Amino acid sequence: MALPAPPPARVFAELLPAQAPVPTPAGRGDPPTPCGREVHVSGSAQLSAGPDRARVSLRLGSRKAAAGAARSSVARRLEYIAQSARQRGVPEENMTVTEDFSRVENTYQMEAEVCIIFSDFGKMQNVCNLLIEKLGTSVTISPPHFYHTPEAIDTLRRQVCVAAVGNTRRKAQEVCRLFGQTLGKPLLIREEETKEWGGHIDSHLLTSPDSLTLQERIQNATAYASCRVFAVFEIKGKENRRTKLL
User: Fold this and answer.
1) Residues 6+ apart with CB under 8 A from 246
2) 84 with 130: CB under 8 angstroms?
3) β-strand 223-238 against 181-197: which pairing, if any?
4) What are the record keywords, sorted (predicted)?
5) Phi, psi (rounded to 5 degrees) for 243
6) Buried b / exposed e across 42-76, counting CB within 10 Å, b at 16+?
7) Which pTM value belongs to this model?
8) What is the Cα–Cα distance from 232 to 188, expressed in whole angstroms?
9) Same-domain pairing of 181 and 98
10) Which domain holds residue 44?
11) Residue 20 phi, psi (nearest 5)
12) Which H or E run includes 217?
């Protein structure tokens, strides 16, 4: 997937001697009217985050002439699945079991589905490999569905904004250094644009084709975010020569 090119940076520096502020009308979202020596900078950042959760569904069933035999056949396998997951550190609350019991002609049919949420993808592979080895064709394991929790997306949004502000400040420092000036305190920091693409949060409607590999599924679920900020910094004065040498 091709990534969009970062927006061009905008830099404006005011290096004239400080003057008394001249009141001028301004809109609510306008930057402050220059009251002294300032540097105006626009910068951006782009980050990505892989999925932090995977959901695996396991289906099993049994059809017997006796109702009790159908139930016990499925119950034994359900207990083995739950025990195997618990032994490998999967919390009980991350496992959900649904059962369906019905009569088909002269037999009884018991079907069950187990959904397990994993935060450790290595444990997920270990559990799935073990169940395939021990239960064989008596259980059907769906490909894992990778997704982001809302907390993971919020973290990505904060990180990309902070990274954009940091890039903008470093750019302003380089501009001041070019003219032998010292960067002062920020006078304005404004988030101008944010974008998010790729990846997804938890949704039962989002599934991946069976032909994809595990790494391709993780890549398809990776989320990207970009942020552009505008900042105004004070220019304190000429750069200290001793500090420059250090």
Assistant:
1) none
2) yes
3) antiparallel
4) Cytoplasm, Nucleus
5) -65, -35
6) bbbbbbebebbbbbbbbebbbebeeeeebbebbee
7) 0.75
8) 5
9) no
10) 38-50+149-203+213-236
11) -65, 140
12) helix 214-220
Q: How far is CA 94 from CA 21, 89, 115, in A?
A: 61, 10, 8
Same structural domain, 44 and 99? no
- Angstrom distances, CA of residue 131 to CA of 42, 128, 165: 54, 5, 48
Rounded CA separation 148/220 (Å): 12
Q: At what angle do helices 67-87 and 121-135 cross, to 10 degrees?
A: 140
Contacts of 29 by beta carbon, 8 Å cutoff, 6+ apart:
190
How confident is the prediction along the chain (246 residues), in pLDDT tens digits per residue? 444 555 555 555 454 454 444 444 444 454 544 456 899 999 999 999 999 999 999 999 999 999 999 999 999 999 999 999 999 999 999 999 999 999 988 899 999 999 999 999 999 999 999 999 999 999 999 999 999 999 999 999 999 999 999 999 999 999 999 999 999 999 999 999 999 998 766 554 454 456 788 999 999 999 999 999 999 999 987 755 554 544
Residues composing the chain? 246
* H-run or E-run covering 156: helix 150-178
Using the structure block, give the residue that is written with the tokens 């020596």. Answer: 37
CATH number of the domain at 75, please: 3.30.70.100
Instruction: Report the CATH number that the domain containing residue 46 is assigned in CATH.
Output: 3.30.110.170
Which residues are 135's β-sheet partners? none
Boundary (domain end) residue, out of 106, 126, 147: 147
